[in-house]
Structures are given as structure tokens and as C-alpha cells.
């Protein structure tokens, strides 16, 4: 635990936020998000602007690999804004998770390409937690060097030009880079269509070995941990949008001759929500700054962030729907975009429950008695 | 804080310790010297116990002094003095008042209590009825206060009284510093839920307070009282704590020491509460950083809201965790404690005492109103009594 880390935003981070927010205001809006649920996959140029004009795809890639050499602090600010805008870009999956794997295994070339905006995806289910289970990959390699197996529910795969695939080989876990052309990618109708999943069938595919053994397992776990840590910032952006939008609404909607925001039943719930959203801001920031500083507390911070922020985002979205009344149940109102994302995010990179289990040994609060001692369960 | 500033402060503390051996001097004498050296509360002005530095630097000073084995001022004996009276006196006091009161307050020679609440005025503090009537250079006070923590052991009190019943309730109040040994003050202990008597009722009959002990202008009592309450909440909220520093540490410790008590259901609740406690702690750190950077920290009230609920749920969990032992209670005898000591008691006491956390210093409902109105900008509660002279209000 480190109290000296700066949990506020620097000027540079604030201008980064402005740039992303301006871009979103120009090229994106909730109606486009809603259209995604009706099959509209047209590209408003968000990714090319984010990675090209703003150069944000390479924030987490060191300069000597061709990246911007920034840190998780800046990437977290980008994610806050993407969560607020509900933008369907593969930032978390490519620029955070895949980029981290590639940097970890020191694949300079591919890391450099991802930093430049080429989209990569780690072929694990989006629900995978950083708990070492990457070693149990469903994909295997045959004697002919061809892969077989399918990974279901992968996020960012639809946009990906290259997949980073954990493979179970005779010698242990391996990581492969596989070109998109070599695999079959089937879109999945997803709870959250602004981060649509796909099933990836690797039968017959070949590729290039990136890493194996311990290094492969650690690279995946660290990347998922970073994903979990920074997902919290997306959740905070989302929760803040829900709180702000709900406040605007209850201040203008009138019933019984008063604005409904004057009713104490709503005021008190909004006050409680505010406390939790503020706390989530602090917790998400702590996860980002410990990741940025590679602080020894980063594993705890990431799991605290997911165990806390995931539920706050869901609560914010649920209160947003409830306090808008019937209008929030309509297809045209954006509240449902946020509810679907918030609920899906709760399952991403491990549920709050998975993260509590992960925390248990890290904070020395074991589930059971140690050997020789009487246990109650 | 800049490194150079920190080095200078470290040097100042070393010089001070070289000249004042904490092991040779008595507690009182050492604390007086510490105040005079500006090391009492470094964010106060020079000459008033401080050095005009950032509030955070105090942690550094405290650590250095503790390392040298210096005695502290037993803050748990004077929480109201240190957390509420001192900052209010600094903000609203005259020079004479600041010089008269701050030093003995810091050293613990004068302990303070808070004469705000009355039987008819709790959440609606501005409705209070205790009257102060001016007679030349003194005020004559009559009325009754209640829930006054530590009144038995205090030398001074912060007091709000009605000085003008002809105007609206908020406009007719004045704030005083009241000598608890003055004739006419009658303190009667009130036994509370835990068995002990931490708080009291205080009857004031023709108590004479010199006008020199009025804090702020006549009629300004509401603003001054609000400053006190804000300070109280920020004090509670922004307190630096280590991980597992509060109630969570007590429960986690029991969990680690007594594996035979563990069950899967308690385990998942404990982990959830651990995360909440840690989240609240990180949020308090961020609040301190915001205040230090001069950004508005509205979260004082909000944070107190969070802490109260958390401590209550944790203290409830602690009893369940203890199982059969949770059914025992240390001591119901009526006692008058001279300090607030939460973690020094047993689990049953903690469970009961924590119930007060959502009542004292503004109930959680009132704090939710404050957050909703002042932070979120939602409409104020209907106030039927706002524009009516106090004397005409139904009571
Ligand atoms: C342990 C303890 C120590 C204390 N120490 C001191 C002390 O040292 N000095 C001092 O002056 N006071 C002290 N107090 C008093 C404390 O400040 C008051 O108890 C508190 O302000 C509430 O007032 P009340 O008890 O009159 O409750 P009431 O104000 O009567 O409240 C009753 C209920 O109504 C609710 N309520 C009231 N108004 C509203 C509203 N507008 N909206 C929604 N709900 C509302 C309250 O939340 C509460 O649930 C102490 C109290 C406790 C429990």
C-alpha cells in the first residue's frame, strides 16, 4: 500500500481527456451505439482517429518498441472517456491487454505495429480472470504444427488483424501469433453490442511462436491483471455518465408539482450513489497509478478495483434506469447502452467474486483454517 | 511538499528535539514547548502553534516526534477541542482569544466539549431555545443542552445560544466559549446504550459569559457553528490511516488468530467489507490530496456517511464471527470514561457504540440531504419555518 502515489490528474492527463472527449462529441453519439444493436457495423473512424490522429494506441508501448512510452495513468484517462461515451473501439483489448502481452514477451515488431494502430486481440474469453487459468487453453498444437480448438467469446476479435493465442502444447503453455486470415471468426450476438464478442475457430491455423512456458503464462496473467485494473476506469467513466445524466433528468422532470429530484427518496439514493462513484474514482485511480509505477501493491489494487468498481457501475446504471422511469425502458433512450455495458463489464476479466477469491491469499485472509487446526466449515 | 521544505522541517524538528529532550521534560512542559516551536499543527500560523505549512506535513512531524519517543497530547481525550473548537477559534477568534485558548487546548490542559444539541433541537440545530441575554459586558445564559459528550471532564465548551428571538431561527444565534466551571452549570451524566455514560445533559441557569468570550459577531452563530460541523466531518473523513487501520483491522486480526471461527459465508462478507474499507481509505487519501492541491473537497460529509455504515456492518460481522463469545459482554456497570476509546473495548461494545456513528455529528439522513443539496445541486427540503421569526414558530 502506497499513500504517496498521486491520485489526481496531471495537466497532460487533463488535455488528453479533452482530446478524447472532443473526438467523441464530433464522431460518436448514443444513437450510433443503439444502431449497433440493429446490425449497423459502419465505422465512424473512431479507431483511426484515436490511434492515428491522437496516437493513443501506443501509450503502453515503450518508445524503443515504437510506442509512446506513456503509462497506465494516461491509458486510464482514455478509458474513462471511452466508458463515458460508450465507444465501440478495441482500446482495452488491443492497446491495453494485447499490447501488454507483446511488450512482456518483448516482440518488438508486433508491439510496434499495435502501437501504430494495428488491432490485436488476446484469444481468451472476455470473462477470463487473471488467475493463472490461461495455462488451461482450449487450443492445442498437432505434430504437423497446425492448431486446433476454438476460443469462445473473445472481445476485439472482430476488428483484429492478428490474434495472440494461448496454446496447450506437450511442453506446456505457449503463446502464438496467428494472422486473422488463418482463422474463422464468427460474430456473437452479445449482451453488450458496443463490445461485441466473437467465437474464434483455430482449426488448421498456423502461426508464429511468441513465448512458451512460464513466460507465456505470466504474460497473459499480467495483461489480464492490467486489463482488470484499467477496466475500472472505464467503469468509472460509465458510472459518472449515469450519475450526471440522472441528475440532469431529476432536476427537470416534474411530478406532483415539483421536480422529482426534490423527493427525499431519490435525493438520498443519489447522495449514496455519489459517495460510491467518488470512491470508485479513487479506487480506479489507485489501480492505474500502482500499475503505472509497477508498485508491489498493484495486484491487490487491481482486484480491489474490480471488486469495487464493477458493482458501482452496475448500481449507477440501474439507478439511472429506475430514476428515469418509463423513458429509460425505450430503445431510443441511451440508458440501456450503459446498463448493458455495465452488467457485461461486471463479468469481464473476472467477476467481483473472482477478485475477492484472488485477494484472499494476497491480503492474508484465508478461507479455511490451516492444517492441524479445527475448522468450522 | 517540495523536498527542500521537507528537509527544512526535518531539521527544525531535530533542532527542537535537541533543545527539548522528550524523556527529560514532563508531558505538559514538552507539549507547551512543542506548541511554541510551531510543531503543534504546522498548518496553523506562526505564533499559534504552527508554521503556515500544508496540513499534510503534520504527519511527517508526528512521525519524527513519535520516533524520538515524544509524548503525544492524548488526542482521544480531547477530540472535540482538537477537531472542532481549535479550527473554529482560529477562523473566527480575536487575537486575544486565539492566544488565550489554543495553547492549553493543544497541550490537553484544557479539554473541550460541545454544547450544541438540545432536547428540542438535534438535526434542526438552528431551532434551539437556550437563551443568552446581554447585560452590559456579560451574557446571561439559561437553557438545557443534551448529549454533551465529555461534559464531566471538560474545562471549556463551545456553545450556541439564541440571542435574538425576534428574527428567523438561523439569524438569531450567537456562538460562545463557555467556562464549564462557571456557577450555574449543572452536568448530569446520561447512561447510554453501552452501559457507560459518555454523554450528559447540561443545565444552564443564569450562567454568566463575558462578552470577550463571544466567538464571531452577535447573530453570526449559525455560520460559526457550520464551520465547526464541517471541520468535524472533514476531520473524521480525511484522517490518514494505514491499510486495515480501523475497525476492519480488528476483525481481520480475529480472523487470522482464530481459524476455528471461519466459515465460507463469513469469509465472503469479510472480503467484501475489506474491499469497502480499503476503498474508503483510498478515497480519503484522494480527498486529502485534493484539499492539499486547493481543489474543493465536498466529500467531507460524504465520506463520514460511508465510514459510519462501514463501521456498523463490520462491528455487526465481528459479533457473528465470534459466535458463542459474541454473546458475552465485558461490563455493563455505569462508568464515566475520560476518553473515547473504540477499539480498546470488546466486540459487543463496538457493535453498540458504532450505532452512534450515524447519529452524532449529523445523522446519516441529514448528511444525505447535505450532499444532495450542496454537492449535487438538488432542490432543498421544504422549509416551512424558514421565513418566520423564531418566537412565532410552533413548538
Ligand atoms: C454518541 C453521541 C454523542 C453525541 N455528542 C454530542 C455532543 O458532544 N454535543 C452535542 O451538541 N451533540 C451531541 N450529540 C447529538 C447529535 O448531534 C444529535 O443526536 C443529532 O444531531 C440528531 O439529533 P436528535 O438526536 O435530536 O435526532 P432528531 O433530529 O430528532 O432525528 C430523529 C430522526 O429523524 C431524522 N431526520 C431529522 N431531520 C431529517 C430530515 N430533514 N430529513 C430526513 N430525516 C431527518 C434523523 O436522521 C433521525 O433518524 C451526540 C449524539 C450521540 C449519539
Automatic annotation (TrEMBL), chain A:
<dbReference type="GO" id="GO:0050660">
    <property type="term" value="F:flavin adenine dinucleotide binding"/>
</dbReference>
<dbReference type="InterPro" id="IPR036250">
    <property type="entry name" value="AcylCo_DH-like_C"/>
</dbReference>
<dbReference type="Pfam" id="PF02771">
    <property type="entry name" value="Acyl-CoA_dh_N"/>
</dbReference>
<feature type="domain" description="Acyl-CoA dehydrogenase/oxidase N-terminal">
    <location>
        <begin position="10"/>
        <end position="109"/>
    </location>
</feature>
<dbReference type="InterPro" id="IPR013786">
    <property type="entry name" value="AcylCoA_DH/ox_N"/>
</dbReference>
<dbReference type="InterPro" id="IPR009075">
    <property type="entry name" value="AcylCo_DH/oxidase_C"/>
</dbReference>
<feature type="domain" description="Acyl-CoA dehydrogenase/oxidase C-terminal">
    <location>
        <begin position="219"/>
        <end position="351"/>
    </location>
</feature>
<keyword id="KW-0560">Oxidoreductase</keyword>
<comment type="similarity">
    <text>Belongs to the acyl-CoA dehydrogenase family.</text>
</comment>
<keyword id="KW-0274">FAD</keyword>
<keyword id="KW-0285">Flavoprotein</keyword>
<protein>
    <submittedName>
        <fullName>Acyl-CoA dehydrogenase</fullName>
    </submittedName>
</protein>
<dbReference type="InterPro" id="IPR009100">
    <property type="entry name" value="AcylCoA_DH/oxidase_NM_dom_sf"/>
</dbReference>
<dbReference type="InterPro" id="IPR037069">
    <property type="entry name" value="AcylCoA_DH/ox_N_sf"/>
</dbReference>
<dbReference type="Pfam" id="PF00441">
    <property type="entry name" value="Acyl-CoA_dh_1"/>
</dbReference>
<dbReference type="GO" id="GO:0003995">
    <property type="term" value="F:acyl-CoA dehydrogenase activity"/>
</dbReference>
Automatic annotation (TrEMBL), chain B:
<dbReference type="InterPro" id="IPR009100">
    <property type="entry name" value="AcylCoA_DH/oxidase_NM_dom_sf"/>
</dbReference>
<dbReference type="Pfam" id="PF02770">
    <property type="entry name" value="Acyl-CoA_dh_M"/>
</dbReference>
<dbReference type="Pfam" id="PF02771">
    <property type="entry name" value="Acyl-CoA_dh_N"/>
</dbReference>
<dbReference type="InterPro" id="IPR036250">
    <property type="entry name" value="AcylCo_DH-like_C"/>
</dbReference>
<dbReference type="GO" id="GO:0016627">
    <property type="term" value="F:oxidoreductase activity, acting on the CH-CH group of donors"/>
</dbReference>
<feature type="domain" description="Acyl-CoA oxidase/dehydrogenase middle">
    <location>
        <begin position="113"/>
        <end position="207"/>
    </location>
</feature>
<dbReference type="GO" id="GO:0005886">
    <property type="term" value="C:plasma membrane"/>
</dbReference>
<dbReference type="InterPro" id="IPR037069">
    <property type="entry name" value="AcylCoA_DH/ox_N_sf"/>
</dbReference>
<protein>
    <submittedName>
        <fullName>Acyl-CoA dehydrogenase</fullName>
    </submittedName>
</protein>
<comment type="similarity">
    <text>Belongs to the acyl-CoA dehydrogenase family.</text>
</comment>
<dbReference type="InterPro" id="IPR009075">
    <property type="entry name" value="AcylCo_DH/oxidase_C"/>
</dbReference>
<feature type="domain" description="Acyl-CoA dehydrogenase/oxidase N-terminal">
    <location>
        <begin position="15"/>
        <end position="109"/>
    </location>
</feature>
<dbReference type="InterPro" id="IPR006091">
    <property type="entry name" value="Acyl-CoA_Oxase/DH_mid-dom"/>
</dbReference>
<dbReference type="GO" id="GO:0050660">
    <property type="term" value="F:flavin adenine dinucleotide binding"/>
</dbReference>
<dbReference type="InterPro" id="IPR046373">
    <property type="entry name" value="Acyl-CoA_Oxase/DH_mid-dom_sf"/>
</dbReference>
<dbReference type="Pfam" id="PF00441">
    <property type="entry name" value="Acyl-CoA_dh_1"/>
</dbReference>
<dbReference type="InterPro" id="IPR013786">
    <property type="entry name" value="AcylCoA_DH/ox_N"/>
</dbReference>
<feature type="domain" description="Acyl-CoA dehydrogenase/oxidase C-terminal">
    <location>
        <begin position="219"/>
        <end position="376"/>
    </location>
</feature>
<dbReference type="InterPro" id="IPR052161">
    <property type="entry name" value="Mycobact_Acyl-CoA_DH"/>
</dbReference>
<keyword id="KW-0274">FAD</keyword>
<keyword id="KW-0285">Flavoprotein</keyword>
<keyword id="KW-0560">Oxidoreductase</keyword>
Amino acid at each position: 500500500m502506497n499513500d504517496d502515489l498521486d491520485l489526481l490528474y496531471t495537466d497532460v492527463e487533463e488535455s488528453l481527456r479533452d482530446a478524447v472527449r472532443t473526438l467523441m462529441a464530433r464522431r460518436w453519439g448514443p444513437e450510433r451505439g443503439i444502431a449497433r444493436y440493429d446490425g449497423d457495423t459502419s465505422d465512424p473512424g473512431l479507431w483511426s482517429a484515436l490511434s492515428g490522429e491522437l496516437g493513443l494506441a501506443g501509450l503502453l508501448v515503450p518508445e524503443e518498441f515504437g510506442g509512446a512510452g506513456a503509462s497506465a495513468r494516461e491509458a486510464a484517462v482514455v478509458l474513462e472517456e471511452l466508458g463515458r461515451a460508450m465507444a465501440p473501439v478495441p482500446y482495452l483489448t488491443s492497446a491495453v491487454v494485447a499490447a501488454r502481452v507483446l511488450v512482456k514477451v518483448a516482440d518488438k515488431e508486433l508491439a510496434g505495429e499495435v502501437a501504430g494502430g494495428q488491432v490485436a486481440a488476446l484469444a481468451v474469453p472476455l470473462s477470463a480472470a487473471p488467475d493463472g487459468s490461461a495455462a488451461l487453453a482450449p487450443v492445442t498444437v498437432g505434430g504437423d504444427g497446425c492448431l486446433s480448438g476454438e476460443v469462445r467469446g473473445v472481445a476485439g476479435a472482430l476488428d483484429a488483424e492478428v490474434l495472440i493465442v494461448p496454446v496447450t502444447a506437450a511442453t506446456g503453455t505457449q503463446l502464438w501469433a496467428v494472422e486473422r486470415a488463418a482463422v474463422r471468426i464468427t460474430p456473437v450476438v452479445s449482451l453488450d453490442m458496443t463490445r461485441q464478442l466473437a467465437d474464434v475457430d483455430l482449426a488448421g491455423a498456423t502461426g508464429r511462436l511468441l513465448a512458451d512456458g512460464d513466460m507465456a503464462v505470466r504474460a497473459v496473467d499480467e495483461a489480464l491483471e492490467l486489463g482488470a485494473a484499467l477496466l475500472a476506469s472505464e467503469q468509472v467513466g460509465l458510472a459518472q455518465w449515469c450519475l450526471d445524466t440522472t441528475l440532469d433528468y431529476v432536476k427537470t422532470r416534474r411530478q406532483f408539482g415539483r421536480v422529482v429530484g426534490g423527493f427525499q427518496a431519490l435525493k438520498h439514493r443519489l447522495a449514496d450513489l455519489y459517495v460510491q462513484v467518488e470512491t470508485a474514482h479513487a479506487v480506479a485511480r489507485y489501480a492505474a497509478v500502482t500499475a503505472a509505477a509497477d508498485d508491489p501493491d498493484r495486484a491487490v489494487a487491481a482486484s480491489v478495483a474490480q471488486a469495487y468498481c464493477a458493482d458501482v457501475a452496475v448500481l449507477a446504471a440501474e439507478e439511472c434506469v429506475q430514476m428515469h422511469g418509463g423513458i429509460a425502458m425505450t430503445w431510443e433512450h441511451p440508458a440501456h447502452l450503459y446498463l448493458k455495458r455495465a452488467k457485461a463489464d461486471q463479468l469481464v476479466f473476472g467477476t467481483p467474486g473472482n477478485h475477492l477469491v484472488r485477494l484472499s491469499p494476497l491480503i492474508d485472509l484465508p478461507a479455511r483454517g490451516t492444517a492441524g487446526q479445527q475448522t468450522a466449515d | 511538499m517540495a523536498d527542500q521544505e521537507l528537509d527544512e522541517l526535518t531539521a527544525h524538528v531535530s533542532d527542537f528535539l535537541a533543545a527539548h529532550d522528550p524523556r527529560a521534560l514532563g508531558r505538559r512542559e514538552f507539549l507547551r514547548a512543542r506548541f511554541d516551536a510551531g510543531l503543534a499543527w504546522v498548518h496553523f500560523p506562526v505564533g499559534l502553534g504552527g508554521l503556515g505549512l500544508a496540513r499534510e506535513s503534520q504527519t511527517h512531524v508526528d512521525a519524527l516526534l513519535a520516533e524520538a519517543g515524544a509524548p503525544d497530547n492524548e488526542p482521544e481525550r480531547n477530540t472535540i477541542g482538537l477537531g472542532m473548537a481549535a479550527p473554529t477559534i482560529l477562523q473566527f477568534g480575536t487575537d486575544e482569544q486565539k492566544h488565550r485558548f489554543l495553547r492549553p487546548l493543544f497541550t490537553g490542559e484544557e479539554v473541550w466539549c460541545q454544547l450544541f444539541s438540545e432536547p428540542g433541537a438535534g438535526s434542526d440545530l438552528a431551532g434551539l431555545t437556550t437563551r443568552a441575554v446581554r447585560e452590559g459586558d456579560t451574557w446571561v445564559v439559561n437553557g438545557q443542552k443534551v448529549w454533551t459528550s465529555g461534559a464531566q471532564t471538560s474545562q471549556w465548551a463551545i456553545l450556541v445560544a439564541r440571542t435574538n428571538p425576534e428574527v428567523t431561527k438561523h439569524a438569531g444565534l450567537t456562538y460562545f466559549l463557555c467556562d464549564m466551571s462557571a456557577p450555574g452549570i449543572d452536568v448530569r451524566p446520561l447512561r447510554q446504550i453501552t452501559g457507560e455514560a459518555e454523554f450528559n445533559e447540561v443545565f444552564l441557569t443564569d450562567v454568566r459569559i463575558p462578552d470577550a468570550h463571544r466567538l464571531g459577531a452577535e447573530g453570526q452563530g449559525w455560520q460559526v457553528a457550520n464551520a465547526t460541523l464541517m471541520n468535524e466531518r472533514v476531520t473524521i473523513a480525511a484522517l490518514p490511516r494505514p491499510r486495515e487501520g480501523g475497525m476492519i483491522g480488528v476483525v481481520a486480526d480475529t480472523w487470522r488468530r482464530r481459524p476455528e471461527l471461519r466459515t465460507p459465508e463469513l469469509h465472503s462478507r469479510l472480503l467484501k467489507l475489506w474491499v469497502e474499507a480499503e476503498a474508503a481509505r483510498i478515497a480519503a487519501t484522494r480527498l486529502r490530496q485534493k484539499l492539499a492541491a486547493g481543489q474543493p473537497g465536498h466529500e467531507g460529509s460524504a465520506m463520514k456517511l460511508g465510514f459510519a455504515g462501514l463501521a456498523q456492518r463490520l462491528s455487526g460481522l465481528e459479533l457473528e464471527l465470534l459466535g458463542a463469545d459474541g454473546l458475552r459482554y465485558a461490563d455493563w456497570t455505569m462508568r464515566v470514561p475520560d476518553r473515547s476509546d473504540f477499539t480498546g473495548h470488546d466486540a459487543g461494545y463496538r457493535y453498540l457504540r458504532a450505532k452512534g456513528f450515524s447519529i452524532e455529528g449529523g445523522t446519516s439522513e441529514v448528511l444525505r440531504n447535505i450532499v444532495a443539496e450542496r454537492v449535487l445541486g438538488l432542490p432543498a427540503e421544504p422549509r416551512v419555518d424558514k421565513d418566520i421569526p423564531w418566537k412565532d414558530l410552533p413548538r
